[in-house]
Amino acid sequence: MNAAIKSFLKEWGLLILLTFFVSSCRSFLAEPRYIPSGSMLPELQINDRLIIEKFSLRNSLPKRGDIVVFNSPYSFDDKLISSRSKPLPKKRYCFFMSFPPMSFIPGLRDQACDAYIKRVVALPGEIVSVNTKGELIINDKLIAEPYVSYKCSLSLFNRCGEFENIKVPKDHFLVLGDNRSNSWDGRYWPGSKFLHKKEIIGKAYFRFWPLSQLGFFQ
């Protein structure tokens, strides 16, 4: 082995192995995420840092109340895809863009690469409605949601994406933000209101920032 190869392996080998390890963990086990918006207030504050756990959902489905991270609707909603002026980005491009500072470079970000975080509120087979306040009705029963503090105004100028009596398809879920008055979620997706299980990346497992809120999610 010549000196140039030895020098390369010495300088870059550990970095390559570390990159491979981190990439594998992100793909199969867990990854960090931050909260960029107020759509999940008050449970999740802007700039909270979380660990998203992926492994458990490989063999089970999310439960009502789980907070999940999922692929951007711009990557799977047929009507949103049809409105694009360019093809969908490749998965490897989105993976590359998920590392700072790449995601902050103007012109490189693609909405289809974003990840969203919402709460699972309705399960496959359930008949679901959302009223003008953003309240959830399942199988004709108003559901208590203690995590929802911000409901919609009844003003005609502040509609809440309400709908009535739609059955959640097999392998799909309704996901909504806790901040019902300020969340772009299944109520507003033009192609379908429901999220397929294959689009789910993982679920919120542990909050590591701020330290005052350190702890596991129920």
From TrEMBL:
Domain Peptidase S26: 10-209
Pfam families: Peptidase_S26
Assigned keywords, A-Z: Hydrolase, Protease
GO molecular function ontology, one term from the record: serine-type endopeptidase activity
Main location class: membrane
Nucleotide-binding recorded as keyword: no
Gene3D superfamilies according to UniProt: Umud Fragment, subunit A (2.10.109.10)
Membrane topology: Single-pass type II membrane protein
Family as reported in the entry's similarity comment: Belongs to the peptidase S26 family.
NCBIfam families, per the entry: sigpep_I_bact
Listed name of the protein: Signal peptidase I
Upper lineage: Bacteria, Bacillati, Cyanobacteriota, Cyanophyceae, Synechococcales
